[in-house]
Amino acid sequence: MTRLCNATLADLDPSILRPQYDRRALRPGIVHIGLGNFHRAHQSWYLHRLMQQGLAHDWAILGAGVRAYDAEMRDRLARQDYLTTLIELDPAGRSAEIVGSMIDYIPVRNDNAPLVAAMSDPAIRIVALTVTEGGYYLNPDKGLDTGHPDIRHDAANPDAPRTAFGAMVAALARRRAADLGPFTAQSCDNLQGNGTILRQTIVGLARLNDPALAEWIDQNSAFPNSMVDCIVPATGPAELALVQDFGIEDAAPVTHENFRQWVIEDHFCAGRPDWDLAGATFSDRVHDYERMKIRILNAGHQIIGNVADLLGIVTIAETMADPQISALFRHVEQSEILPHVHAVPEYTPAAYLDLIERRFSNPAIRDTTRRVAFDGSSRHPGFVLPSIRDGLAAGLPVTGLALVEALWARYCTGRREDGSLIEPNDPDWSALQTRAQIAKDDPAAWLVPAIYGDLARSAAFADAFDGWLRLIHKEGARAALTRYLA
């Protein structure tokens, strides 16, 4: 077993791809906040592949985090010189690659002083984030939640911010004061209009205590929208054992499918790497790409994830092998989602659905239904409900999506159909579970404005939801699937 670090790269099996560039000569250009598996399998990999071509050596990544648990990841990665083993899982075989585009991880402190200092350096031209779609402090109307305790804290303590966004505002304030110019703020999360939402959060937070700074950021910084895509399971014992099969001792390996996509608006205020030379796409049609991906793939995960975990099915591939659930997936997608999705140069909506169906069915990817079902209180409003609204506006069916929402409500009661406990699987799990229990007898109690907005007042949706939830509690999820598919 070879412990992963710079000194041992030459000792790895020759079949394992590794950095061909001198990592000691790399210079930082990007701070990336949120060093989870997705970033290390996606954005970090695109930059690594540019570096393999002899390019972008002044764009290396400084990792960052703003929560206490990020310190543990920093320690793990520091022990292996910030290298990551990526393992591609394909039905035809597995392969491994060592990614070296991150060269340091900023120390994690409660006041985020090291992070603010790093982002204030003019060498940093991009600050990117993967903080999950629920991490942008949005209120029910999708504006900035200025009443959230974290936002109130950062507005009152701009020099000791608690959030990534407060730290970014503090760094931008320093850069403005030193006449250094802003950095580009780049969201890499699954949000439609993610750059626009990031602009709203940063500018809105700055405006709470320094309107002049907010105006400067709004006029001078850049917030490109983007669409990101790659299925990246969580790392557990199986993944740790898998990396050892390659003879590598890696405390933070990442597995991923053999598909990646990154579509980016070419709107940067301080330069950028040529990611397109590594396979990314620069396009002014990001919204069409992200609508296709969010509506078909991300909503597709919600169509199948809750019901599968409810029925005790562990992985997404096993879920797609279930005839009823796979039929639910295709029928809801074709009748209630695809009509609201536009074609992009590479795919028609139908062709993209076929692609997603193949990707979900990949038995080599052990992506769990629990991971897919996590944080439904953010994912359903962002991924599923927009298609319901579009369907209602167009006079098209929403019956299948109402069933999907009823299955989520049943899931949040906290017990599978075999009686086993569903461990908390949402940041708001306690409140969801309380509402789900009440909704057993009063389904309308589930349709709270904070999540559903005005949908509760739509008889076409609310009545269908009511009928499905009552049926699920009376006869079970299988009976509801049978009735829908009939």
Notes on the structure:
With 486 residues, the chain is an alpha/beta fold. Helix content is 46%, strand content 11%. It has two domains: 2-282, NAD(P)-binding Rossmann-like Domain (Rossmann fold); 286-485, Orthogonal Bundle (N-(1-d-carboxylethyl)-l-norvaline Dehydrogenase, domain 2), CATH 1.10.1040. The protein has helices at 37-41, 43-52, 70-78, 113-120, 149-156, 164-177, 194-207, 211-220, 237-245, 286-310, 316-320, 323-337, 349-360, 369-373, 376-394, 399-411, 429-439, 449-452, 459-475, 477-485; strands at 2-3, 28-33, 60-64, 84-90, 93-99, 102-105, 126-129, 184-187, 226-229, 248-249, 254-256, 261-264, 281-282. α10 crosses α13 (349-360) and α19 crosses α20. The chain is globular, with a radius of gyration of 23 Å.
Structure, briefly:
The protein has 486 residues and is of the alpha/beta class. It is built from 20 helices and 13 strands.
List the helices and strands and how they pair.
Blueprint (H helix, E strand, L loop, with lengths): L1 E2 L24 E6 L3 H5 L1 H10 L7 E5 L5 H9 L5 E7 L2 E7 L2 E4 L7 H8 L5 E4 L19 H8 L7 H14 L6 E4 L6 H14 L3 H10 L5 E4 L7 H9 L2 E2 L4 E3 L4 E4 L16 E2 L3 H25 L5 H5 L2 H15 L11 H12 L8 H5 L2 H19 L4 H13 L17 H11 L9 H4 L6 H17 L1 H9 L1
Parallel strand pairs: 1-10, 2-3, 2-7, 3-6, 4-11, 7-8, 12-13
Antiparallel strand pairs: 4-5, 9-12
Helix pairs in contact: 4-6, 6-7, 7-8, 10-12, 10-13, 10-15, 10-16, 12-20, 15-16, 16-19, 19-20
Pfam families: Mannitol_dh, Mannitol_dh_C
InterPro entries: 6-PGluconate_DH-like_C_sf, 6PGD_dom2, Mannitol_DH, Mannitol_DH/Oxidoreductase, Mannitol_DH_C, Mannitol_DH_N, NAD(P)-bd_dom_sf
Protein name: Mannitol dehydrogenase family protein
